[in-house]
Design brief:
214 residues, alpha/beta, Rossmann fold, four-stranded antiparallel sheet, 35% helix
């Protein structure tokens, strides 16, 4: 279970999130929508422990992220979370297969699943290619495969279909649903797309007043 408890975050004197509280049920696929600049990406970064709130807590299974040291927080992200970044963060010196296999290798697992995940996102036979050979949409699919490959308990997705054409976006969203449901994982997806949000169990809108049901 994931709980946000009175989260507040300020950047440069501007309050992005103010006393935000919400409880996400285990295995729930939630879409978060809202205007640009309201703090959706900031919220994902706080949940993942990539940034720290000015006040308030993020609790994962009842334990506050703030109680973890850097090594413990890194282990938690590496083993239990998958993150799809808007900027992809694909490593240019690694092949596509190596990029996707990275979470498995860091967790001491074999990388056989990496090829299967590349197939699942429509990049069959491209495992030996390098990121420089790919389009933006293809890079996004590599990032999605990497986020799913280790079967995380919680998937955090920041505009996961933003660079994809409608047909590919629909296929990727079906894959996200399939993978999270198969393993009982939860998911929080930030999106501007109403079509993407329609795939979720619940749609929330982030405003200056907090998270509200759409």
């Amino acid at each position: 279970m994931l709980e946000l408890d009175q989260l507040t975050k300020t950047y440069g004197g501007r309050t992005v999130l103010s006393n935000l509280s919400h409880v996400f049920a285990p295995g729930e696929f939630v879409a978060i929508m809202g205007e640009s600049g309201v703090g959706k990406s900031t919220l994902l970064n706080l949940v993942a422990g990539l940034d720290a709130p000015d006040s308030g807590r993020v609790l994962v299974d009842g334990a506050p992220m703030s109680a973890l040291d850097d090594d413990a927080a890194t282990r938690l992200r590496r083993t239990r979370m998958g993150f799809i970044f808007q900027a992809f963060h694909v490593l240019p010196h690694l092949t596509l297969r190596q990029n996707v296999a990275l979470p498995l290798l860091l967790n001491g697992d074999a990388d056989e699943r990496a090829g299967a995940m590349l197939d699942a996102v429509g990049l069959h036979g491209r495992g030996a290619d390098f990121p420089r050979q790919l389009s933006g949409g293809e890079l996004q699919r590599v990032a999605i495969a990497r986020a799913l490959v280790h079967r995380p308990a919680l998937l955090l997705a920041d505009e996961p279909t933003g660079n994809l054409d409608p047909d590919t976006a629909a296929a990727i969203l079906r894959l996200l649903r399939q993978e999270t449901r198969a393993h009982g994982a939860g998911a929080i997806m930030v999106t501007h797309s109403h079509a993407a949000a329609a795939m979720a169990d619940k749609v929330l809108v982030l405003t200056n007043s907090g998270l509200k049901l759409a």
